[in-house]
Amino acid sequence: MSGLGELAVGQVVAERDIHLTRESLVRYAGASGDFNPIHYRDDIAAEVGLPGVLAHGMLTMGLAVATLEAWLGDTGRIAEYGVRFTRPVVVDPADGADLHITATVGALEDEYARIDLTVRAAEVTVLAKAQVRVRLS
User: Fold this and answer.
1) Considering the domain boundaries, does residue 117 fall inside one?
2) Which domain holds residue 15?
3) What are 90-126's pLDDT values in tens digits?
4) CA distance 132 to 105
5) Domain count for the chain
6) Distance CA 110, CA 115 (A)
7) Which helix (H) or strand (E) holds 18?
8) pLDDT tens digits for 46-65?
9) Residues ≥6 apart with Cβ < 8 Å to 104
10) Confidence band, pLDDT 50/70/90 cuts, at residue 26
C-alpha cells in the first residue's frame, strides 16, 4: 500500500467503471449459487413489481470493494466492510448497466483509514454508507 503517510481526508484513492451484462449476472449466479429468477428473467422481475432484471446486491457490493485491490496491494488489510442497499441496479438486456465507483478517504484514525465508496448506476447512488475500514500498518 503506497502513500500511507500522505493520506488525507477527501483524497480519492481509487476509481473505476464496470460494465455489467446479463451474461455477468448468469456467471455470478453460477459462482454464488443465487439463481433467483429476478436476476435473469424479465417476466418474473415484472411480476414482482421490479423495473427489470436486477444485478445481485452482493455482486454490486463485491465489485465496489474490489476497486480497492490495486491501491491496497493486500486485501487482508480490510478489517470491516458494510453497505446499505438503497437502489437496485437494473441490467438492460441489450445495453447492460454501468457502475461507477469512487473510493475516497472518509476518516483517518490511529491505525485505520475509513474509505467511503460511492457507487452509482444510471446517475443514481445504489449503495449508501458503503464504508471500508482499512488497517494502515
Assistant:
1) yes
2) 4-20+55-135
3) 999 999 999 999 999 999 998 999 999 999 999 999 9
4) 10
5) 1
6) 14
7) strand 12-20
8) 999 999 999 999 999 999 99
9) 10, 11, 12, 13, 115, 116, 118
10) very high
Amino acid in position 105: V
Is the backbone of residue 15 left (phi > 0), alpha (psi -120 to 50) or beta?
beta
Q: Which three cell numbers stand for residue 113?
A: 483509514
User: Which CATH number characterizes residue 110's domain?
Assistant: 3.10.129.10
pTM of the predicted protein model = 0.92
Among 64, 65, 39, 53, smallest CA distance to 92 is for 53
Q: Which long-range contacts (CB under 8 A, 24 or more apart) does 5-9 make?
A: 7/105, 7/108, 7/113, 7/136, 8/105, 8/108, 9/105, 9/106, 9/107, 9/108
Cα Rg for the chain, rounded, in angstroms?
16
Is residue 50 a part of any domain in this protein? no
Can you tell me the distance from the alpha carbon of 64 to that of 70, in angstroms, rounded to the nearest whole number? 13
